[in-house]
Amino acid sequence: MPVVIGVDSSTQSTKVEIRDLDSGELISTGRSAHPDTGTAPLSETNPNEWLNAFNAALEIACAKNPQTKFAAISIAGQQHGLVTIAHDHKIVRNAKLWNDTQSAADAKWCVDQRGAAWWAEHVGSVPVASFTVTKLSWIKRLEPQNWSQTSRICLPHDYLSWQLRGGGATEITTDRGDASGTGYWSAKTNEYDYEVLNIIDAKRDWSTSLPRVASPLEQTGTWRDAVIGCGTGDNMAGALGIGLQLGDIAISFGTSGTVYAVSATPTNDPSATVAGFADATGAYLPLVCTLNATRVFDKFASILNCDLQQFGELALGSECGAHDLVLLPYLDGERTPNLPDARATLVGLNGNHTRNDVARAAIEGVVCGLFDGLTAINNCGVNTNGRIFLLGGGAQSKAVCQIVADLTNREVYVLNEPEIVALGAARQAAAALTGKWPTWHASSKIAAQPIATSSQGSATRQRFAAARLKSFGV
């Protein structure tokens, strides 16, 4: 039977899924961890580590049937990372990742050159430290030798797809979804914005430096006789994996947290809260991203001397609002709101609070930050009255699911698929092969189950907003 491969190359690991082309049934899966990327504000890695992890994960996935013949493959990757390639096709320096905030000063400088409204109008987003455009500025400013050696630049998923095609002098391509997260490609015009790029370096020939933006169903090459899809960013692949429709909301709890919705029209937000991204199908994906999500859970589980399952049980042992205890979860700065130098703060702690309250406040703090983002998306005119889907590692926690429901007083749906991004990449691979999107999302394999709700969430979200305003002025 023909099979397709979906790849999720995230910050921490690479996941590979092999699925039946016709039904979407998961046949096998493999996973391989990435090396540590450094200590904040630094987050860098050698891009070849992604390739090594892909090969290791693929070997695991193919262990039971090493002679499997693949029909198509597509790669989803972490957004915003910057890969620099020299004239001899070698890596110039380690890739700077989305959560590297060393370019915070460059983000401010970029915005100051034209103003926030200008950036939002041109590329749908206002630069923050995570965006690729700020990392270009950082390298040009602080590493002029590396900048002069750089011939081509691309994103993580672009790099992996390029390597599958053979690397070297072969063409590098990207897609509209991932390109829209760079800060120099416009979802509104479907083109690179050279006026933006010339702010960084007016002397560079950008037309030869940038990947070609492939169309959503394009076949961009072959690997082991399999068709290669154009790939996309991890959030865009998540939307594909869910089968997200207009009005639906997706909230992802991974290393970072994201909330996004599908829009029929492009958006722009001069406040820099909402990124006006494109999706992987031809529509748009307004998105809010926070730096702090599951790592907050990991840290507080460690502080409370328990594992993650026990941490969730502790949280459910408290009530909605954690008895007025609030965590502002900015462990190593934050992207939304733009607070790169902030640190986490517990507000309202008193002698009556328990471990249960601290655990509950940790989860509520992450969730409240994401739902502030949902409000901002709604304020951009986007319909957010549909279903709420949770994905990512944090969505496997009953406590996280219940707290999202409590804080919104809405049903929450959790998909019965552990790797939604890899599933989305597999769907894209199938679409590139056949020329049409498969309808796997209708399968009972990913049927969603609603979570019960509570009516106590509004006051909790208000306390979170008040504590953040008092502590950080936003």
Question: Secondary structure elements and their pairing?
Answer:
Layout: E1 3-9, E2 13-20, E3 26-33, E4 44-45, H1 48-61, E5 70-77, E6 83-86, E7 95-96, H2 104-114, H3 116-123, H4 132-142, H5 144-149, E8 150-154, H6 156-164, E9 173-175, H7 176-179, E10 185-186, E11 191-192, H8 194-200, H9 206-209, E12 212-214, E13 219-223, E14 226-229, E15 232-233, H10 234-242, E16 249-253, E17 257-261, E18 275-278, E19 284-290, H11 294-303, H12 308-316, E20 326-328, E21 345-347, H13 355-379, E22 388-391, H14 398-408, E23 412-414, H15 420-434, E24 449-450, H16 457-472
Parallel strand pairs: 1-5, 5-14, 5-15, 9-12, 16-22, 22-23
Antiparallel strand pairs: 1-2, 2-3, 4-7, 6-8, 10-11, 13-14, 16-17, 17-19, 18-19, 20-21, 23-24
Helix pairs in contact: 2-4, 10-15, 11-13, 12-13, 12-14, 13-14, 13-16, 14-16
